[in-house]
Write a structure and sequence with these properties.
seven-stranded mixed beta sheet, alpha/beta, 469 residues, Aldehyde Dehydrogenase, Chain A, domain 1, 18 strands
Amino acid sequence: MESYNETVDLLRRNFLAGKTRPIQFRLSQLEALNKLVEENKAALVQCLKKDLNKPPFEVELSELSMVQSEINLAVNNLSTWMKDEHVSKNLATTLDTAFIRKDPLGVVLVISPWNYPVHLTLIPLVGAIAAGNCVVVKPSEISQNTEKVLADLLPRYLDKDCFTVVCGGVPETTRLLENKFDYIFFTGSPNVGKIIMTAAAKHLTPVTLELGGKNPCYVHDDSDVQNAGRRIAWAKFFNAGQTCLAPDYVLCSEKYRDKLVGAIQTSIHEFYGEDPKQSPDLGRIISEKHFLRVSALLQSGKIVTGGQTDESERYIAPTVLVDVKASDPVMNEEIFGPVLPILTVSSVDEAIDFINQRERPLAAYAFSSSTQIVNQVLDRTSSGGFVANDGFMHTTIISLPFGGIGHSGMGMYHGKFTFDTFSHSRACLLRSDGREKLNEVRYPPYSESRLGFVLYAVGAKQKSSCVLS
């Protein structure tokens, strides 16, 4: 089996030769990537249809347009992002030049998942290119049609001496990880994230891990129930629930629950019709393995809507569960499918306690017409992102960072944050080789009288005192 040594070595030679550093090269590759998306939209829509039965509307919204927005932002701002960032100095360096240079890291590895296989492959690639790196791209073999299309298209549009695609499954990825990379960017499950981090540790390679988790959604009694029902249903059943940001479970009061269930049922009917299986707007589960796993979760609690399955089509109906216990299987793994458990709590305090007793999620959602209630959930919980009165719309704002915390990941990206992730902030000080008299005060033999002056010259002082009452 291929070790990929030669592939990585070729990229490293070209990186060390400086091929990827000039802004003109970076811009040309970003424009080529944009051209790839623009010229092959039909092929990308088709492969996502085959893999996930993803509706074209969802493909355009969550895959293609987001990639192109990232490319456009990078092209528009790259010259600014690359500029040296000058910093304040102390007295000892007043006559010198101090700045931060954004250096490319080198040869980086991007490992992407199957649920948004275009978006989650190309957006990290945009930042890695913008930052001046060589890149090995490893798409998911599970979304096999998309993997094949990306493996065909990327070498046709990007410089093959600096960017390459590796296909395959676990054995190929394992071999790939034996090589030394300067950075690894992984999107996937926490369990695989641990494997990636272990492999990276052998080479002291830094990582970004974009993982998942059980995203809580608290709905307060004062919420507009119809609006909450529509927004939760859209966010949950988008891409057949196979979204790392999807609301994973709902917390609400017992008296509010039936109203919310009714609103979600109405929304499902509005979105997908009398028989969701016939809807062109509802996706399918990616594989038989995942179908069987998600189907098994339907045994938790009581089904109040949905529950129908068809293994031959990998179809699971949009499903709502009630009377779910915290110990049930559906509450002890990320669902990643169109199944929504609703649990009851007596108060916002109990909801917050419930959330805080679990691993920190990638996102948390709170629905309430009260700013005070929303801020309570925001201030007293911890998550990668937070949205009030909607689903994952925050991810459409590329000036916001995207990333997890704790069990849901480490590191962040989107927009300039992706450029920064794939850049090394290099501390630079340029001094004159003269003016030696100014330096003599710090040289041995040391004396107490000199120490005070040196400390004053290199130290920072508080501008004003702070008194706590």
